[in-house]
Amino acid sequence: MYTRNVRIKLKANGAPEFTRILEKEIIPLLRKQEGFQDEMLFIAPQRNEAIAISFWDKQVNAEAYNHIAYLDVLRILSKVVEEMPVVETFEVANSTSHEIAASAV
Taking Cα atoms as reference points, which of 75, 74, 96 lies closest to residue 85? Predict the structure, then answer.
């Protein structure tokens, strides 16, 4: 399993609208993507910052999303995002919420 961790700098007072857009527009779009498993969102309204973590079954599907639908997500979020989000991809080593065991190296 893989994650896409996205650090997002929000416009001032943008957290409520960002959360609404995520729930109403982005989550439905993510659910249509091959290999999408889950999304977690963390917001620090006092810092106008959010971290979105999406879980994917395979690295290839996480990367495909980055090239296929992520540009649409950036367009949708443009009214609440201050600057270009920073994206990092990780392999999940362990997760109690997803019952994932670390893979043997």
Answer: 74
Q: Can you tell me the distance from the alpha carbon of 42 to that of 49, in angstroms, rounded to the nearest whole number?
A: 9
Residue 76 in this model has a pLDDT that exceeds 50: yes
With respect to residue 98, please indicate whether it lies within any of the assigned structural domains. Answer: no
Beta strands in 29-91 (DSSP E): 36-44, 49-56, 86-91
Contact of 27 with 39, CB cutoff 8 Å = yes
* pLDDT score of 98: 61
What DSSP element (H or E) covers 3? strand 2-9
What's the mean pLDDT in 71-95?
A: 92
Nearest to 8 by CA among 61, 67, 57, 70: 70
CA distance 34 to 102: 23
Count how many domains the chain has.
1
Q: What is the dihedral of CA 38, 16, 13, 39, to 10 degrees?
A: 0
- For residue 63, the domain's CATH number is 3.30.70.100
**Full domain range(s) for residue 28:** 2-91
